Amino acid sequence: MSLINAKNSDPGNDPPELVRAFLAWLDSERGYSPATLRAYATDLREFEGFLQTLELSLSRHGDVERDHVRGLLARLHLRGVKKSTVSRKLSSIRAFFRYLDMRGLLDNDPTSGMGNPKQERRTPRALNVDQTKSVMEAPTPPDASGLRDHALVELLYGAGLRVSEALALDVDEVDPGAGVIRVHGKGSKQRLVPIGATSAKRLRAWIRHRHELLVDPMEPALFLGDRGGRLHRRQAHRIVARLARDAGLPESVHPHTLRGSFASHLLQAGADLRDVQELLGHERISTTQRYTSLDLRHVMGVYDRAHPLSGDGSLQQREPTSGNDPSWPGHDELDQESTDSEGE
């Protein structure tokens, strides 16, 4: 599917040429991922459809006023669209008009001065150490696909990668013996990420048997799908969910849950916040700081279970709890990071 032809859009509603040029610029100049480009295309097609109900169009961008942008946001609000989604759509529209201004095609920016809706502060989701270990050790088929599945989850947790970063890796870019891998992150930014001995061992095992799933010898992808091409995001989600289910975890687990667990466990072990920011590839440390709430939850849980004066304040003997205690992080219903743009 073309990045411009967004899902569920009217096939007869071709996007204006300026929108096509904007998306091509995001692709070639900004290096945005296919998922991010699809999100921009979807948002701009929806705005174009809204404008057409008013006999307007982005092709006549000079006629678009602030009230038209507000009209779309009001309609989204009435439909009960989440604030995070509304904010993303406004950001897409704002970026389009800034692109026009950069090209000298804009006299008046209708999004100027418009702030995004106030966001609910979401806590990233994470598993505790025992739960994470159970996912890593969940049974897999004794074949190449099983080796692939174990290597994938080890890399998602062991290196804290976004699923898009793991799936974008090429086999000739990865040397398990080096102890580090070069990751292509958001906006084509690169970073070096260390990998542990277990991750390296499972990567080597998968690479040795990768040819068993390979169909085209020229396919460069590290992780292959069952049909021999680059592993798709949806299949990666299914792999993680299946391993978590087979490990006996009651809640749904996603690739980003493993990334959140990576960050949470590092902070619990005393890692510096700036170092975790670098490992995760976050541009803003405020994004990384959200994982400190998981660390605090862990500390408070330990206190509540262990200190004799916690709880009702009475001195009492407490029974030791296991890693499967529902009060541990990972058993609570926490918001899952959005996968439209691969989360944080």
Largest sheet, described in full? 2 strands, antiparallel
Question: What Rg do the Cα atoms give?
Answer: 23 Å
Helix content, binned percent: 40-55%
Q: Would you tell me which CATH topology of the largest domain applies? A: hpI Integrase, Chain A
**What is the structural class?**
mainly alpha
Find the CATH superfamily of the largest domain.
Intergrase catalytic core
- Overall, the morphology is elongated
- Order the strands across the largest sheet as they lie in space: 1-2
> What's the N-to-C terminus distance?
25 Å
Which stretches are low in confidence, meaning pLDDT under 50 for 5 or more residues running?
1-12, 312-342
Number of domains: 2
Strand content: under 5%
SSE succession: HHHHHHHEEHHHHHH
CATH class of the largest domain: Mainly Alpha
Number of helices: 13
- Average the pLDDT over all residues and give the rounded result: 79
How many beta strands in the DSSP annotation? 2
Give the CATH architecture of the largest domain.
Orthogonal Bundle
Domain Core-binding (CB): 13-101
Active site: 162, 186, 256, 259, 282, 291 (o-(3'-phospho-dna)-tyrosine intermediate)
Main location: cytoplasm
Domain Tyr recombinase: 122-304
Structural overview:
The protein is mainly alpha-helical. It folds into two domains: 17-102, Tyrosine recombinase, N-terminal domain (DNA polymerase, domain 1, Orthogonal Bundle), CATH 1.10.150; 129-306, hpI Integrase, Chain A, CATH 1.10.443. Helix content is 47%, strand content 3%. The chain has 13 helices and two strands, in the order H-H-H-H-H-H-H-E-E-H-H-H-H-H-H. The chain has helices at residues 17-28, 34-53, 66-78, 83-102, 129-136, 144-158, 163-168, 197-209, 233-246, 255-268, 273-280, 285-289, 292-306, and strands at residues 180-184, 190-194. The chain has a two-stranded antiparallel ribbon. The radius of gyration is 23 Å and the shape is elongated. The relative contact order is 0.11.
